[in-house]
Write a structure and sequence with these properties.
Elements: H1 13-30, H2 37-48, E1 52-56, E2 61-64, H3 68-76, H4 83-86, E3 97-98, H5 105-108, H6 112-121, E4 123-132, E5 139-146, H7 154-176, H8 188-192, E6 197-201, E7 207-210, H9 212-221, E8 224-227, E9 230-233, H10 236-249, E10 261-266, E11 277-284, H11 287-292, E12 301-307, H12 315-323, H13 327-339, H14 342-349, H15 353-367, H16 372-382
């Protein structure tokens, strides 16, 4: 296990890859056995270069290296004052974000969050990565930096980028399967609410389950089809690539990188969508899930399919563009949505109340609003519950 092996600066690439491979396997296993998250977070903190780590949302938290008393304080009070959490609204999924990305260092040291929560524990910085939208109840991986380690650096961000996609996919996969049995029925509503097309298949490509988006893809716009209960492409090359991917995913010793096993897909047979390109990403499921399935139909892999296109703007970016808000105006608007009134926003952002009022007046003018309640409704109207 890597928890006992700290990674020094400039560690050889091969050593890093070995540790990462071991850690990635542990991440996916923890998706099906939450009791493993503490150990995974311990390994992750050391891999990234921190002294503590947490997998956190407003509703739940798994952690390693944190005082349980401060964890409860964070969940119930200080999460609303953490400047980095306020920065989630303008951050990209899987992209590391630290204190300095949101607030100048000197201002951070004057915030209530630093004085009452971070400083008493000896924390000087942290790096977060958003793993799931919506941003107002985001799931995030957090790694904290002690004063003896210094501030977040480029190496720490790089290691965080290596882990983030695996944590994100493990969380989504964890929603697909019940901890004690194949959880198709209990999680059907969750799957159907996700815009991405998701397929659970066995080692031979036999389709075990498809969510609503997957079913629609098969029936209307798909580069995929069903042939004798098996998921197949619209040409022999795609068929072969899918078969190889499913077989490889069923092998627990096979290495799967950050993007999974990528299979390019092309719609050929339907005139409306003919020539459209799609991307399939195949990931293995844990051995625990395989054992729990019925004979002959236990899923061994999950396939995510999406149309190959540039990512659309996030809700905060759309708001800023629609109303021509500056970066600071957007930050104040989102903080109003997150933490409430002017005093709370000023304290969270580390600025004077007069500064917040000045920006708030400009926001009212630009959005043609008169009350903070109107701004909350505006932000909510741009939020999407699920992303494709």
């Amino acid at each position: 296990m890597i928890a006992s092996e700290a990674i020094s600066t400039g560690a050889p690439k091969q050593a890093t890859e070995r540790r990462l491979s071991s850690l990635v396997a542990a991440i996916y296993d923890a998706a099906f056995d939450p009791e493993r998250w503490s150990r995974v977070l311990a390994d992750s903190a050391i891999f990234v270069g921190g002294c503590a780590a947490a997998l956190c949302s407003r509703d739940d938290v798994y952690q390693w290296g944190l005082d349980p008393h401060y964890v409860q304080l964070y969940r119930h009070t200080y999460i609303s004052f953490d400047p980095v959490v306020l920065g989630y609204s303008i951050a990209d999924i899987e992209e590391p974000i630290s204190t300095v990305d949101v607030i100048p260092r000197d201002r951070f040291l004057t915030t209530r969050f630093y004085k009452e929560w971070a400083q008493p524990q000896g924390f000087v910085d942290s790096v977060h990565t958003i793993l799931e939208e919506p941003c107002q109840n985001a799931i995030a991986l957090m790694v904290f930096r002690h004063e003896r380690d210094g501030l977040v650096d480029d190496e720490m961000r790089w290691h965080m980028r290596l882990l983030a996609p695996h944590f994100r996919r493990a969380i989504l996969i964890g929603k697909l399967v019940d901890l004690n049995k194949i959880g198709i029925t209990p999680f059907a509503d969750v799957l159907d609410a996700i815009n991405a097309a998701i397929f659970l298949v066995d080692a031979t490509g036999c389709l075990v389950h498809a969510n609503a988006a997957g079913g629609a893809m098969l029936s209307a716009t798909s580069p995929l089809r069903i042939a004798d209960k098996h998921l197949a492409g619209e040409d022999q090359d795609t068929d072969r690539a899918l078969c190889n991917a499913f077989a490889r995913a069923s092998n627990r010793n096979a290495k799967v990188d950050t993007k999974g096993i990528v299979v390019p897909l092309l719609a050929l047979g339907r005139e409306v969508h003919k020539g459209e390109h799609y991307a399939g990403h195949v990931f293995p499921l844990s051995s625990q899930v395989r054992r729990s399935g019925q004979a002959g139909c236990a899923p061994t892999a999950v396939l995510f399919v999406h149309k190959a296109a540039l990512r659309t703007s996030s809700a905060p970016e759309a708001i800023a563009k629609a109303y021509k808000l500056t970066a600071m105006e957007l930050r104040v608007l989102l903080a109003i949505f997150d933490v409430g009134g002017v005093p709370e926003v000023a304290e969270a952002l580390g600025v004077a109340e007069s500064t917040v009022k000045t920006h708030l007046g400009r926001i009212f003018d630009k959005t043609n609003s008169k009350r903070q309640a109107d701004l909350v409704k505006l932000v909510a109207s741009f939020a999407n519950l699920f992303v494709g």
